[in-house]
Specification:
Blueprint lengths: L4 E4 L18 E6 L7 E6 L6 E9 L13 E4 L14 E5 L3 E6 L8 E4 L3 E8 L2 E5 L2 E5 L3 E5 L5 E5 L6 E7 L27 E2 L10 E9 L3 E9 L4 E6 L4 E4 L18 E5 L2 E6 L2 E2 L19 E6 L14 E5 L11 H5 L4 E2 L3 E6 L4 E2 L14 H4 L11
Parallel strand pairs: 8-16
Antiparallel strand pairs: 1-18, 2-3, 3-18, 4-17, 5-24, 6-7, 6-27, 7-14, 9-12, 9-14, 10-11, 10-13, 12-19, 15-19, 16-17, 20-21, 21-26, 22-25, 23-24, 23-26
The chain binds fe (ii) ion (FE2).
Length: 396
């Protein structure tokens, strides 16, 4: 999405006969959004991508909300969530609204099926893990700290490295996930001063063409459910492609933090934007350098937005009540801020090693029923219960 890319063989012009060695023509497919006017790519398949042998509805995936609507801050401990399974089929919904959903999974096996989300872009934060994302656009190796941006419609499969543990935080977005517009100039190039540049963005770099006939199941998410579609050939049969629509990766450790003499607000940490939400990265950085600066965030009311933080570092393990993998939800309607004594204690601190992923939604989020099984139900009172050793939320 961020810029033009091409892999494999493509013809000299679009929409002309592109001959196979046997004299037949390759099957051209345009994959793009916004009705031929948004970003798109042209792919050249050995076999037509349309040869469906059978279809079946597998299951519904409607997210059910916690029936208790009492407004309060929430805290979920993903360390206590169910482990294992598939990166695509065993995701546990945590929070959701009509724009964005946040899910969590610790996959332990490779998927046999290929997967495509037809109703949302996916952003997969690899909190732990390594492997390869196989796609029709080629292989995209991933590692710890990666954000994988898998736009809707992109067929893919996770090949997980079983030598390491996997922890995936997954966002499903109704709108298109992209770098913030204010980071880009009128030509789309990332500007000087943006916290990352094109060199930090990784694209598929190797394309293997698999020409095989047989039954190949795809699982496609559409209409809030999973559908099985069986193709009569291996779907990774692309010999070449070009365009702006493809999966890409950005590692959180390549985010260049912006610091100031006094506290900088959360927009300096913004990494992506979507329709109805933003994603920010809180990375290790020097603290504010005025001698009287208060590095801890000031209390704030998120008028018009909900704030969700995923604590992505073991740095927080020693901090009371919060651990690696914690997810806090601070909804619109109640202020939040540092725990008692922590603002004063933060004065003079030089640096932080925190690592956290924040998602702010512009419409209220609901807690999914499945997340209640690993909730710290006392969190909303922790600002008065913590007398000593409270933590400094990295939010601003
Ligand atoms: Fe906050």
């Amino acid at each position: 999405m961020p810029f033009y890319h091409t892999l494999g063989k493509i013809p000299r012009k679009r929409h002309i006969a592109f001959r196979k060695p046997d004299g037949g023509i390759y099957n051209e497919e345009l994959v793009g959004h916004e009705g031929f006017t948004g970003t798109s790519s042209l792919l050249y398949h050995v076999h037509p991508p349309t040869t469906v042998k059978s279809v079946k509805r597998l299951k519904e995936t409607c997210y059910e909300p916690d029936p208790d609507k009492a407004l309060r801050h929430r805290h979920f401990l993903t360390s206590k969530a169910k482990k294992g399974g598939s990166a695509t089929l065993d995701r546990i919904p945590i929070l959701f609204n009509s724009d964005i959903a946040m899910l969590y999974v610790e996959p332990t096996k490779d998927d046999e099926h290929f997967y495509r989300n037809a109703q949302g872009d996916e952003l997969v934060y690899v909190s732990k893990g390594a492997g390869v994302l196989e796609t029709t656009y080629g292989d995209l190796p991933y590692r710890e700290g990666d954000y994988l941006i898998i736009h809707r419609g992109i067929l893919h499969r996770f090949r997980v490295d079983r030598k390491v543990d996997h922890k995936f935080l997954v966002f499903e977005s109704r709108g298109h996930i992209r770098p913030p517009k204010r980071y880009r100039n009128e030509f789309g190039q990332l500007k000087e001063g943006a916290p990352y540049s094109e060199r930090d963005i990784r694209r598929p770099m190797e394309l293997e063409t698999i020409d095989k006939k047989g039954d190949y199941p795809l699982i496609v998410k559409q209409y809030d459910g999973l559908n099985e579609i069986v193709l009569d050939h291996h779907p990774l049969d692309v010999v070449g492609w070009d365009g702006y629509f493809y999966p890409w990766a950005f590692n959180i450790n390549d985010f260049e933090p912006i610091v100031g003499r006094v506290h900088q607000p959360p927009p300096v940490h913004q990494t992506f934007e979507g329709d109805g939400f933003v994603v920010c990265s809180f990375c290790p950085r020097p603290y504010d350098f005025d001698p009287e600066a208060v590095p801890a965030p000031y209390n704030h009311s998120n008028v018009d937005s909900d704030e969700v933080l995923y604590y992505a570092s073991s740095e927080f393990m020693s901090r009371k009540g919060i651990e690696f993998g914690s997810i806090t939800h601070h909804p619109d309607g109640i202020p939040h801020g540092p725990h008692p004594g922590r603002a004063e204690a933060s004065i003079g601190a030089k640096a932080t090693n925190e690592l956290a992923v924040m998602m702010d939604s512009f419409r209220p989020l609901r807690v999914a029923k499945q997340a209640m099984g690993f909730e710290d139900s006392h969190y909303h009172k922790s600002w008065i219960e913590t007398k000593e050793g409270g933590f400094i939320p990295p939010t601003s």
